[in-house]
Write a structure and sequence with these properties.
Elements: H1 4-30, E1 38-42, E2 46-51, E3 54-57, E4 60-61, E5 68-75, E6 82-90, E7 96-105, E8 114-120, E9 125-129, E10 134-137, H2 143-165
Antiparallel strand pairs: 1-2, 2-3, 3-4, 5-6, 5-8, 6-7, 8-9, 9-10
Helix pairs in contact: 1-2
Keywords: Signal
Signal peptide: 1-23
């Protein structure tokens, strides 16, 4: 005898198989290119994004000719409860197009903290800090194209599993 839980699961799978297939495949096959923001977050410390081709380097909006954003945070020499934050926009040749240096309260008071993060218009991302957090991504274009491709592959794999699974509950 099937429990109420099993009946609900079968019903949910049936609804997903009938309606979800069309919606997911349609979205995956007919999706127009999107101009969303690429986002880099380093341990809740730094945020950089690309919005419609413009780099937002944490709190600094980079000029149009900018290609890369670099954010460096280090505990100050005088007070480990504060960090010096350098936000810098660079052109393709590495020349600074904008830069700010500020002192802010540390998210890790009483501890030495260092972090480095960068993002560029090709979708390359690199970040690390002295607490062992690192992340790297090499992109050849808009990072969202890469992410959407990964999501579409995942959706297709799920749909294949659903359609090949058959009915796990015999009649």
């Amino acid at each position: 005898m099937l429990s109420k839980r099993h009946v609900m699961m079968v019903a949910l799978c049936a609804v997903c198989a009938i309606f979800g297939t069309t919606a997911v495949e349609g979205a995956a096959l007919n999706r127009s290119p999107r101009q969303l923001s690429s986002l880099l977050t380093l341990s809740g410390e730094s945020n950089a994004r690309i919005e419609n081709g413009t780099i937002i380097c944490d709190t600094l909006k980079c000029p149009a000719e900018s290609f890369k954003c670099v954010i460096v945070k280090n505990s100050t020499k005088d007070d480990v409860n504060k960090v010096q934050v350098t936000r810098e926009c660079l052109d393709p040749a590495g020349k600074a197009t904008a830069k700010t240096v500020t002192t802010e309260a540390s998210n890790f008071p009483g501890q030495q903290f260092e972090s480095y993060a960068e993002i560029d218009k090709n979708g390359n991302i690199a970040s690390f800090d002295n607490r062992g957090n690192t992340y790297n991504h090499s992109g050849t274009g808009d990072i969202h194209s890469y992410l959407y491709e990964q999501i579409e592959d995942l959706h297709k794999a799920i749909l294949d599993q659903l359609s090949n699974a058959g009915n796990p509950f015999g009649a």
